[in-house]
Amino acid sequence: MTRSPGAALARFGAVVLSVAVALGVCLAPASASPAGAAVPGAAVPTTSVPDYSTGPFAGRLCGGGRGDFVCVAARAVTAMTQGSGHRADAVAQGRTCEVQSGLWVCFGIESILAQRGGTTYGDTFLTSRGAEALAPGLLAHESEHVRQWRLFGPDFALLYLLEGTDPCANYFEIAAGLDAGGYTCP
């Protein structure tokens, strides 16, 4: 099988982009319009990073020993793979996907997969909204869900469901920031 240098370069670029997003490298302005112009005064809010090492699912984190790098890398690759699968499906359906503040976002998703205002799968946020610049707080909230996918690996979906569908009582939604996620709780 012969591969062209252009195809190899495209694959290399996709890998570099995926790794950069996985490592949290900001690849877009803090808040970008669909045309890519920065929105004046909009920045992703800085909040304290949740510590999951003492939470109810601490035992599901990578162990911290000699094999920790392999565990962490495998979980990051799993999140990238899952996210890229959802992006491929979205693009195949004619939807738009772009990076906003280092987060992959796919717009116009009409599926049970985009519950409420949207849902993060792996490293990708699926939303039913049209292509638009998302609020910095929402981007920070969904970026924390990406971090949760990377920390808890393939078990994250099950762990999330075990917490229940009420976002106001869900450990992972609380950790990601209820207000930033658009949730109003009593």
TrEMBL record:
- Signal sequence region: 1-37
The UniProt keywords, alphabetically, are:
Signal
Q: What is this protein called?
A: DUF4157 domain-containing protein
- Say which species the protein is native to: Sanguibacter gelidistatuariae
